[in-house]
Amino acid sequence: MKLQPAYDIILRLGGFAHVSDITGVSTVSPYRWTYPRAIGGTGGTIPQWHHRTLLDYAHKRGIRLTAADFLPPPLENRRRRA
User: Fold this and answer.
1) Is the residue at 1 inside a domain?
2) Number of domains the chain contains
């Protein structure tokens, strides 16, 4: 299971390898952003220091992406899924 919102953002921007190239991180890092914290992931969040790079990239290419897209789902939605 790939966690949100990281998975959706990665797909919008062209996939895991492409996001790795955009951000300058190892190819493993974008995958980790979609994994639960219990297994070494970030729980579906993209580290904040990459947000501006990804937002700028999306803007230059006409890809719909906003700062709000990086926020995790509201707490009440996360509780219902559990």
Assistant:
1) no
2) 1
pLDDT per position as a tens digit, 52-69: 999 999 999 999 999 999
* HEC letters along the chain: CCCCCHHHHHHHCCCHHHHHHHHCCCCCHHHHCCCCHHHCCCCCCCCHHHHHHHHHHHHHCCCCCCHHHHCCCCHHHHHHHC
CA distance 10 to 44: 11
Residue 58 within any structural domain of the chain: yes
Question: Which domain does 62 fall in, by range?
Answer: 6-81
14 neighbors 21 (Cβ within 8 angstroms):
no
For residue 13, is it within any domain? yes
